[in-house]
Every structure is written in C-alpha cells, then in structure tokens.
Specification:
CATH class of one domain: Alpha Beta
CATH architecture of one domain: 3-Layer(aba) Sandwich
Shape: globular
Helix content: 25-40%
Radius of gyration: 20 Å
Strand order of the largest sheet: 6-9-10-3-11-12
Order of helices and strands: HEEEHEEHEHEEHHEHEHEEH
Strand content: 25-35%
Structural class: alpha/beta
CATH superfamily of one domain: P-loop containing nucleotide triphosphate hydrolases
C-alpha cells in the first residue's frame, strides 16, 4: 500500500462517493524524455490540492492530461468513480473539468462580460443580447465576490489579480466542478495575491468545487491547500495533508534534491 492510499478522506467523506478525480499509474514520454512515470493522484470533493515541484518536474504535463489536452501513455483516469478516456479539452469540460492557465485565455480587447460569455454568447438573432449578458455576468461576479470597476470595461484595463479572478469566475460560470489552476499567484503583488486567495477560500466554502493548484510559494500553498503533492522527476515523492508538513520540510526535500544533482554533475565532470 502506498502513502497516498493511506491518506484518509476528509471528515465525513466516503471515498466511494466523494472522490471526484483519481489518476492511477500515469506515465507520459516525449521522445527520449520521460515527463511522468507511475504518477498516482487523488482529489476529494471540495478539496484543494497543491501540486508543487521544480520547473520541468512534470506538473504542467499532468495538468494537461487532467484537462484532456494530452493523453497519457499508460495509466487511467477516473472522474466521479467512473473510468474515462479524455478525448479533448471539450470532453473534459463536459465532465466538469476546466483549467485556468497562466496566460488566462482572456481576450484583452473585449469587455469583462464578453469574456465571461466567450464562445457561449447569448444571441437574439441577428444580434448579441448584450444587456442580458451584462446582467448575468455582473450577478455571477457579485455572487463570487469578484470586485471590478464594471463588467463593461475591457479586460486589458484590469489588474493582474482582477484578470485572474475573471478567468476563475468564468470557469465556475461554465459549471466547472474540478478546477485546475496553473500558477494563479505568479508575478502578483501582495494585494493581488490576497484577492485570489480570498476567492479560493470562498470556493472552498461552497464545498462543491475541487481544485488543484500549481504553485511555487510553499507558504501560500500550505495556507490555502488541504493537501500537498510534491512532484519530482515525474514522480509524486510526497503526499501529505498541509497541517502535517511545513515550509521547512518542503524546502529541505528540494534542497536535498539540488545537492544530489550537484554531486552527480561533479562526479561525471
């Protein structure tokens, strides 16, 4: 039995009914490069899982597999207990899985409400129903606590934190129940980080949305996440509840890896 198999479900949860995503023995190669090898991940309903690791560890590849952008070479995925073979990003979205990348996939020249309805516009033939889209977008953002000057402003005029909040809100608006966030706190100031952390806390309180976050700041990960997975060289090497680990432990593991790599280079020089 692996360390991951021993992790208990959240209080009051039943693994049979509350596990929304499970990856078993996932591997992925790109030519001679092994990006992932025998990766096992599970996510409970309402849980926030932090996925950490150095650049090139395989985090982005794993997220792309979860969202249907890439297929694994081996292993299987289960969504809400049922095995699935994700054929595309659209297929994953139909199952409630959506991803927010660092580039956000927002159209800067369009207004906030047009971005909220991108590719799902309300049409009153032959015109867009802008009034309805403005009203619905504002109601949804207000409900999520996303504060922006107006839904009528172009996305380009918003701060980085506000744009990130819009991208997350759009995924929730599209009925995502498994939300994958790729570096949502990168290159932000303290005020913007606080805004996104508050938004994630609010989503946690809802209890019906499960989140995987890729992040590098261990302090932020342990603050917002229920559990943390460390991915090293394509493998999960640590799987712990946030309360059972620390920034010091995570730093020590990564520093030890750097030292081993340095020693190997020195031996081969």
């Amino acid at each position: 039995m692996t360390a991951q198999d021993q992790i208990p479900a959240p209080s009051g949860a039943s693994p049979a009914t509350d596990e929304v995503l499970r990856a078993e023995h996932i591997s992925k190669r790109f030519g001679a490069v092994t990006a992932l090898q025998d990766v096992n991940v599970r996510l409970q309903r309402g849980e926030v899982l932090g996925l950490i690791g150095d650049n090139g560890a395989g985090k982005s590849t794993l997220m792309k597999i979860f969202c249907g952008f890439q297929r694994p070479d081996s292993g299987r995925l289960l969504v809400n207990g049922a095995e699935v073979v994700l054929k595309s990003v659209t297929h994953a979205r139909s199952l409630g899985i959506d991803v927010v990348y660092q580039d956000l996939a927002l159209v800067n020249q369009l207004t906030v409400y047009h971005n909220m309805f991108l590719n799902r516009e309300i049409v009153r033939w032959p015109l867009l129903s802008n009034r309805s889209m403005r009203r619905i977008a504002k109601e949804h953002l207000d409900e999520m606590g996303v504060n922006i000057p107006s839904v009528n402003v172009p996305v380009a005029s918003l701060s980085g934190g506000q744009r990130q909040a819009i991208a997350v809100a759009r995924a929730v608006f599209a009925d995502a129940r498994i939300l994958l966030l790729d570096e949502p706190l990168a290159a932000m100031g303290a005020k913007e980080v606080a805004m996104i952390l508050d938004l994630i806390h609010d989503l946690k309180r809802r209890g019906d949305i499960s989140i995987i976050i890729i992040a590098h700041n261990y302090g932020q990960v342990l603050e917002i996440c229920d559990r943390v997975n460390l991915l090293q060289h394509g493998e999960i090497t640590l799987d712990k509840r946030s309360r059972d680990t620390s920034v010091q432990e995570l730093n020590d593991i990564v520093v030890a890896e750097y030292r081993r790599a340095l020693e190997e280079r020195q031996r081969s020089a």
